[in-house]
Description:
By secondary structure, the protein is mainly alpha-helical.
Amino acid sequence: MREMLAAQDRQNELLEELVVQIGSHHRQRMAELSVWQQANPELAHFCRRAADKLGKIQTDYLTSITEEIEYGFETLRGGEYVLSEFVDRFGPRFAHLNGLLHVLSQLGSPSDVTDQSAGTRSAK
Length: 124
């Protein structure tokens, strides 16, 4: 029983160390982002606007994907070739769109969201 408690204590210590490391890395990234945004305020603003517009495009694209699934469900379900064709058709573009949107959203995020202390967001 003592061995189990000792092992659990050690595991808790390791988890605490991991949380500290992840939190410190996150705070460093947020500080770097804030510095970049302060050095490039106009570009950060354009990134925010582009992210908003690209988000609307993503919504439209997602709508077309879900409609395709809705109308072609049985065909997609029944045929490996058809499913593979569907993934090839929509997958790469959707993945790239998500990547672009993520980067633009990060670079254009409002500064009050990037100014974080101890991993919590400050109030607006």
